[in-house]
Design brief:
By secondary structure, the protein is an alpha+beta fold. About 25% of the residues lie in helices and about 20% in strands. It is built from three helices and five strands.
């Protein structure tokens, strides 16, 4: 979780240009980077940093699970419609609170691709 949701704390957020670069260098091709928050600005800023890295692509569309069926898809803005971990599994206390309060969780996923 990234506790720095206020705009004035943007420089302290977890996903920065340095983190995005480190991910692009350290991950294998096909590896996925998942970001979620109930604060859309936090996810949008992370998406901007990750998207500025040539070898990380914002994944949009539909994803087939290991069984070949569509496991998850995105809306027209590229937000994941559910957790990519499947089965409706909730991993954090914040996710549980948001689900209980019917508060939307904004989710994006990036995929490591070979830089061209």
């Amino acid at each position: 979780p990234d506790p720095w949701t206020a705009a004035k704390h943007k420089r302290r957020r977890t996903v920065s240009a340095e983190v995005a670069h480190a991910l692009s260098q350290g991950l294998d091709d096909g590896a996925r980077v998942y970001v979620c928050s109930d604060v859309p600005a936090v996810v949008a800023d992370a998406a901007q940093e990750l998207g500025a890295t040539p070898s990380l692509s914002w994944w949009r569309g539909k994803c087939a699970g290991e069984d070949g069926r569509v496991a998850i898809s995105t809306d027209e803005d590229g937000w994941l419609l559910a957790s990519p971990f499947g089965g409706g599994v909730v991993f954090s206390e914040r996710d549980r609170v948001c689900e209980h309060l019917w508060r939307r969780v904004f989710r994006v996923m990036f995929v490591r691709r070979e830089a061209s």
